[in-house]
Amino acid sequence: YNLVRDATMERHPEDDILSHYCVKQAVAELSGVVPIVHDMCVNTCLAFTGPFAHLDVCPRCGESCWDAKKSKPMQKVPRQTFDTFPVGPQLQALWCHPDHVKKMRWCEEHTQK
Predict the structure, then answer these.
(1) Would you write out the chain's pLDDT as a tens digit for each of its 113 residues?
(2) 37 phi/psi in degrees, rounded to 5
């Protein structure tokens, strides 16, 4: 996202495109849905979660999980991350608005006829 944003901003500096971080913050603020961030292999082999959470090196490709340039002795910075959005809070947010409730009940109402 940021690479495309940076290229667009270089070509069209008058456009105001939010950074990925700002977009994530805005979504969290507006919806109340906060992503869960997971560390992952830089080659997208696996996520360092569950049984792999304790690993520092990818067992598949041998790449380190941590960014050597950005990490400090007491604070490791992952080379790559991915976000998951839990479905529970998303559904709760949908049920809070009357228009969305009506849309979600449409299928049930029309299949009973």
Answers:
(1) 889 999 999 999 999 999 988 998 898 888 777 888 999 999 999 999 999 999 999 999 999 999 999 999 889 999 999 988 888 887 887 788 888 888 888 877 888 76
(2) -95, 130
CB within 8 A of 34, min separation 6: which ones?
A: 28, 89
Q: Could you tell me the two tokens for 8?
A: 């667009």
- Phi/psi class of residue 44: alpha, beta or left (left: φ > 0; alpha: ψ in -120 to 50)? left
Both structure tokens of 24: 């994530």
C-alpha pair distances (Å), 94 with each of 23, 70, 88, 102:
20, 39, 10, 10
